[in-house]
Design a protein that fits this description.
The chain is mainly beta and 50 residues long. It has a domain of 31 residues. It has no helices and five strands. The strands form two sheets. The protein has a three-stranded antiparallel sheet with strand order 2-1-5, with no helix packed on it. A two-stranded antiparallel sheet has the order 3-4. A hairpin with a 6-residue loop joins strand 3 and strand 4. The protein is globular, with a radius of gyration of 10 Å. It binds zinc ion. Zinc ion (ZN) binds next to loops.
Length: 50
């Protein structure tokens, strides 16, 4: 299984996971709940354990 990390959407506070390749890729993440797009650094909560 590919490594993943969790982020929290800065707009709606929804938590979702992304492929770890996205972690430092510098590309926008796409929130599946509200459709917001944001950078990893803008997330108020990141869990990249494991
Ligand atoms: Zn959202």
């Amino acid at each position: 299984m590919d490594r993943i990390f969790w982020v929290e959407c800065p707009d709606c506070s929804g938590k979702f996971f992304c492929d770890y390749e996205m972690r430092y890729a510098g590309i926008d993440l796409h929130c599946p709940f509200c459709g917001d797009q944001f950078q990893v650094e803008q997330s108020p909560w990141i869990d990249d354990r494991g």
